[in-house]
């Protein structure tokens, strides 16, 4: 590892301690990787790419030391709950539509049967035979 890489890791660990202690200096102190990167003075993508292990360590410490759920996890849980509600609503709607299709098919069959029973086909007066029938 290079000296710069080691220095970044040291800054990130120190920032982790400050943020978890509630003594943030350079950030808003929220328990997110954006605030951690700002507090450490490193670019957010450096934290995400080069120091992903420290980002994961930070979130584990947030869970254990601060007894809180990290912000990204809260957002994901909220999204999952919304999607589950959407799926449940769609299942209800699909069931209602299936029932409607069944009812419409039955109504169509009843109407077709009633039409067939009331109008018996008779000889058509506008039909001309193609070939005369032999008598």
Biggest beta-sheet profile: none
Q: Could you tell me the radius of gyration in angstroms? A: 36 Å
Kindly give the count of domains: 2
Give the count of helical stretches. Answer: 5
**Uncertain spans:** none
Could you spell the SSE succession in H and E letters? Answer: HHHHH
Q: How many beta-strand elements? A: 0
How much of the sequence lies in strands comes to: under 5%
- Average pLDDT across residues? 86
Structural class: mainly alpha
Distance between the ends? 108 Å
Overall outline = rod-shaped
Q: Give the fraction of residues assigned to helices.
A: over 70%
Organism: Streptomyces cynarae
Coiled coil: 73-107
Protein name: TetR family transcriptional regulator
Keywords: Coiled coil
Please provide a written account of the structure.
This protein is an all-alpha fold and 135 residues long. It folds into two domains: 3-68; 71-115. The protein is built from five helices and no strands. The longest helix has 48 residues, at 71-118. The chain is rod-shaped and about 110 Å long. The N and C termini lie far apart (108 Å). The mean pLDDT is 86.
């Amino acid at each position: 590892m290079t000296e710069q890489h080691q220095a970044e890791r040291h800054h990130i660990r120190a920032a982790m301690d400050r943020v978890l202690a509630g003594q943030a200096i350079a950030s808003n102190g929220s328990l997110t990787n954006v605030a951690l990167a700002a507090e450490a003075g490193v670019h957010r993508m450096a934290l995400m790419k080069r120091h992903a292990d420290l980002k994961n360590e930070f979130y584990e410490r947030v869970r254990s030391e601060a007894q809180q759920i990290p912000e990204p996890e809260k957002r994901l849980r909220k999204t999952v709950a919304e999607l589950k509600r959407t799926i449940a609503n769609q299942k209800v709607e699909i069931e209602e539509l299936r029932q409607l299709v069944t009812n419409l098919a039955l109504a169509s069959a009843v109407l077709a049967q009633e039409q067939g029973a009331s109008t018996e086909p008779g000889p058509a007066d506008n039909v001309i035979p193609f070939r005369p029938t032999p008598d």
